[in-house]
């Protein structure tokens, strides 16, 4: 019903066309700062006599067509500058006039607050947000440069309603309004990105360096000309065009990096260049950045949950982990823009990012669940154990992970009077590889009554105790630990998409009201596959003492660990003498591999009409989806298991290829309204329908079944029968611009979700004709909803006795709930109830100082068997500081501090209603310092 009402509303907008004006006079001008070298993107140009408006582009240009001969008044507004009115004359209906309009010429442009520093960044972002039809948040390159952000994800988290999920203490996945990052789409220069992640659709934006950005635009409401598979919204990454500048532009940055935890230095450098040629008709822009960062983390984790049935609660298995990481990131962009003439323009844009993590993880696993719990001596919060076939494992992971994203786009625009046609052909490729990852395990079994303790006085930081004497000697004696196996992994995930689109727009009058009708088609074909080559080897000749080293671990005594380089050398030197375990190798290799092909054909019709202060934009999009997938059913039956009435005499693996397909059509209406109560107060409202297709790893027909010698059966399944998630999205907001350097924004949103996809666990169930004691798969939940409010305040504090201060605060409060198959009501996974950012800046006399606090509340990370088993990630609040000093317009020095208060990552379960640690990870603080040159 909601979609029907919206379709009727949008149809009414389009049905308003009574006549199309035949005149074709054009005003094609440019709005710049006082130097006439920098275009003021986001400025609004209104034709006073007709009510038509145009938004100024990145190069400062604007275009208004369909005008009769006569005199016109252009009213130009931009945050940070006084409104300016300019008169122009069209001598005939075929005339074109090209005025250049300057703003801010009452200020010395060398220190022009319109375009430089924190205040200039604020002006630019607010102007673009104010002019937009929908609900967007904009971060300009200057604004991004004010923060100590490593990558695109960390830059995006400064926007209202945006949260970021971290990996190893660095921002990685973007969440909009608290929704799962898989429900957020990402584009670069208008090209939809695919994901290098093996299982998912989410794009880890730590792959792309923040230094190469021109701006980041967060679209929270969708128009019909945008892809419809984005429930949370879209992150649009923009890089520079040579037509954005007058003459050559050059910016270079060189920096050193320091990690406190590892006490290691890294380095970072970037260069951005742009220029135009052929009398300003050919623009060329290029960016290149490289970063090498050495860092690490210390983690205390619990596997297998907590036992709360004894007199003292204790973790079943404790893991102490030390990570050492060398991260390299290279990002390059090269853009060509060519204006053939005033009516035809072409472009070619490419972006390439390469990301690698060389990671070493040393882990010690202590399995208290296998020890004897001493009920007599355990008391208070101290659990006491005596060893009886209890293992301690000391393993090492030596892994190089690389991710590559390449995006290319060729297209153009042709203007013919009141009609414009644009087209694009794009190719996107993403890859994740793990070449020759080596996991090696050493273990020792304690069985002589050795004494161990766990003190859980602080359930978020339990303390381990070893009984002293012989127990402690054995725990920390590397010669006790024998090799118990190697795992060699070669994994490759590849995701590629070809796309083509064409859009046609007719500017016209709807009676006396200006507007347009636009329509277009877009085709996308996507191929995602994951191949895993997993080999298992046994060897009992290598002792930990043969390859031992020590590491610093800040959360306790980790003891001797394996040196990854020595282990790797030994493994490959002796590979021919190791025992290959084919059964285990086949299970994981076939069980993980898959291929999914996805074709989407879309078409849309939309229109816009302006009636004084009211602008309506609406239409409908239709998307046809065809999916086909391949995988394997992998069945492991252990020796003595009974299969089809036959008792097996050895472990056996049965592998059967599987296929699946699905197709469906979605009709996605939308309507957006923008109303100017006054020139400084804007009200917006929106409804749009959207979908989210299942992740490839959820849809792929992968079946993994294991039957033990007692004929107990466990299974894991993909689910090709999953329905896509469907969403009805509502937005309403009000923005107040009290003066030329401030905004106050308040918004409300609601999303009604059907067919939410979630993981599910089963016990004692028959699936696909086979009985399972335990099984895990994915299902559609009937419905869910999420709603919330957003608040944003930004202002230059000119009223203070001391000039130069800028303040900002944004806050998002959300509430969500989903009903599980068992009737339990939970919040949506990864949904924080509150997210906020507070900023205080100073920009004066060459100094550019910034302090920012970013905070989010706890969120549900994993839905498990019940509320006592669910995993929660606790609240996180981080302080970052930035300081810059500009000696002149060319030379600047800077220093940044991240995570000043050493905020950890904390995940818990609540088996008895108490927060009990499942993961406690510390990263320390980090610093960036260097110089920037701008010409």
Automatic annotation (TrEMBL):
Intracellular or extracellular location(s): Cell outer membrane
Domain TonB-dependent receptor-like beta-barrel: 434-900
Keyword vocabulary terms for this entry: Cell outer membrane, Membrane, Receptor, Signal, TonB box, Transmembrane, Transmembrane beta strand, Transport
Alphabetical list of SUPFAM superfamilies matching this protein: Carboxypeptidase regulatory domain-like, Porins
Chain ranges of the TonB-dependent receptor plug domain: 130-221
A GO cellular component annotation in the UniProt record: cell outer membrane
Coarse class of the protein's main subcellular location: membrane
Family: Belongs to the TonB-dependent receptor family.
Descriptive protein name: TonB-dependent receptor
Species of origin: Maricaulis maris (strain MCS10)
């Amino acid at each position: 019903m909601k979609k029907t009402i919206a379709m009727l509303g949008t149809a009414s907008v389009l049905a308003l066309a009574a006549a199309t004006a035949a005149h074709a006079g054009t005003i094609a001008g440019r709005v710049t700062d006082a130097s006439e070298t920098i275009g003021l993107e986001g400025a609004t140009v209104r034709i006073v006599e007709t009510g038509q408006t145009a938004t100024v582009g990145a190069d400062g240009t604007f275009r208004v067509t369909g005008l009769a001969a006569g005199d016109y008044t252009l009213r130009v507004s931009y945050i940070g500058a006084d409104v300016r009115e300019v008169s122009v004359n069209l001598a005939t209906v075929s005339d074109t006039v090209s005025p250049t309009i300057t703003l801010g010429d009452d200020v010395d442009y060398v220190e022009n607050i319109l375009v430089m520093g924190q205040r200039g960044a604020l002006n630019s972002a607010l102007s673009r947000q104010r002019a937009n039809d929908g609900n967007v948040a904009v971060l300009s390159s200057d604004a991004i440069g004010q923060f100590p952000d490593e990558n695109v994800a960390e830059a995006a988290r400064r926007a209202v309603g945006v949260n970021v999920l971290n990996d190893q203490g660095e921002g990685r996945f973007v969440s909009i309004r608290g929704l799962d990052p898989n429900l957020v789409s990402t584009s670069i220069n208008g090209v939809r990105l695919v994901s290098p992640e093996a299982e998912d659709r989410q794009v880890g934006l730590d792959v792309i360096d923040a230094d190469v950005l021109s701006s980041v635009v967060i679209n929270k409401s969708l128009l019909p000309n945008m892809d419809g598979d984005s429930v949370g919204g879209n992150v649009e990454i923009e890089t520079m065009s040579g037509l954005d500048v007058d003459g050559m532009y050059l910016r270079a940055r060189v920096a050193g990096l320091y990690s406190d935890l590892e006490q290691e230095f890294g380095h970072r450098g970037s260069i951005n260049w742009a220029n135009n040629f052929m009398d300003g008709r050919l623009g060329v822009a290029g960016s290149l950045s490289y970063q090498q960062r050495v860092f690490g983390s210390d983690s205390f984790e619990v596997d297998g949950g907590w036992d709360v049935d004894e007199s003292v609660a204790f973790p079943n298995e404790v893991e102490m982990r030390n990570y050492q990481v060398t991260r390299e990131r290279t990002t390059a962009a090269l853009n060509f823009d060519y204006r053939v003439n005033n009516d035809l323009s072409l472009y070619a844009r490419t972006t390439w990012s390469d990301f690698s993590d060389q990671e070493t993880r040393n882990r010690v696993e202590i399995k208290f669940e296998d020890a004897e719990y001493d009920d007599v001596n355990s008391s208070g919060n101290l659990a006491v154990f005596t060893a009886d076939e209890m293992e301690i494992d000391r393993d090492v992971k030596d892994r190089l992970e690389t991710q590559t994203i390449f995006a290319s786009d060729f297209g153009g625009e042709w203007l013919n009077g009141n009609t414009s046609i644009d087209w694009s052909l794009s190719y996107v490729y993403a890859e994740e590889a793990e070449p020759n990852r080596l996991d090696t395990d050493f273990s020792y079994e304690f069985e002589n009554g050795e004494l161990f303790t766990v003190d859980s006085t602080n359930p978020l930081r339990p303390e381990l105790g070893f009984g002293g004497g012989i127990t402690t000697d054995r725990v920390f004696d590397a010669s006790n630990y024998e090799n118990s196996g190697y795992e060699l992994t070669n994994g490759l995930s590849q995701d590629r998409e070809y796309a083509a689109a064409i859009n046609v727009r007719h500017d016209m009058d709807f009676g006396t009201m200006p507007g347009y009708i636009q329509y277009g088609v877009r085709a996308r074909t996507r191929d995602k596959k994951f191949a895993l080559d997993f080999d298992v080897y046994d060897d009992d000749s290598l002792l930990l003492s043969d390859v031992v080293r020590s590491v610093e671990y800040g959360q306790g005594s980790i003891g001797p660990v394996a040196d990854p380089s020595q282990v790797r050398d030994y493994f490959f030197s002796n590979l021919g003498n190791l025992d290959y375990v084919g059964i285990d190798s086949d299970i994981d290799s076939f069980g993980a591999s898959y291929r999914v092909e996805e074709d989407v054909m879309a078409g849309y019709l939309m229109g816009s009409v302006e009636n004084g202060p009211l602008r309506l934009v609406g239409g409908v999009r239709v998307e046809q989806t065809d999916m086909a997938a391949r995988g394997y059913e992998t069945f492991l039956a252990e020796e003595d298991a009974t299969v089809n009435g036959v008792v097996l005499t050895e472990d056996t693996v049965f592998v059967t290829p599987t296929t699946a397909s699905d197709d469906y059509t979605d009709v996605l209406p939308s309507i957006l309204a923008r109303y100017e109560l006054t020139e400084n107060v804007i009200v917006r409202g929106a409804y749009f329908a959207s979908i989210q297709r299942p992740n490839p790893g959820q849809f792929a027909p992968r079946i993994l079944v294991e039957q033990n010698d007692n004929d107990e059966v466990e299974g894991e399944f993909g689910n090709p029968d999953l329905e896509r998630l469907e969403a009805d999205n509502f937005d309403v907001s009000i923005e107040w611009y009290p003066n030329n350097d401030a905004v106050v924004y308040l918004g409300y949103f609601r999303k009604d979700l059907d067919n939410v996809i979630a993981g599910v666990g089963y016990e004692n169930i028959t699936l696909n004709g086979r009985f399972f004691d335990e099984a895990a798969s994915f299902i559609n939940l009937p419905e869910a909803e999420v709603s919330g409010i957003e608040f944003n305040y930004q202002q230059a504090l000119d009223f203070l006795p001391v000039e130069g201060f800028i303040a900002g605060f944004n806050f998002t409060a959300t509430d969500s709930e989903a009903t599980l198959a068992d009737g339990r009501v939970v919040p949506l996974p990864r949904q924080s109830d509150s997210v906020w950012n507070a900023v205080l800046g100073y920009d004066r006399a060459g100094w550019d100082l910034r302090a920012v606090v970013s905070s989010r509340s706890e969120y549900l990370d994993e839905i498990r068997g019940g509320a006592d088993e669910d995993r929660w990630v606790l609240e996180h609040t981080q302080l970052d500081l930035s300081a810059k000093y500009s000696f002149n317009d060319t030379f600047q020095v800077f220093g940044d501090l991240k995570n000043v208060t050493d905020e950890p990552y904390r995940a818990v379960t609540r088996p008895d209603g108490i927060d009990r640690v499942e993961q406690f990870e510390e990263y320390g603080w980090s610093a960036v310092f260097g110089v920037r040159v701008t010409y």
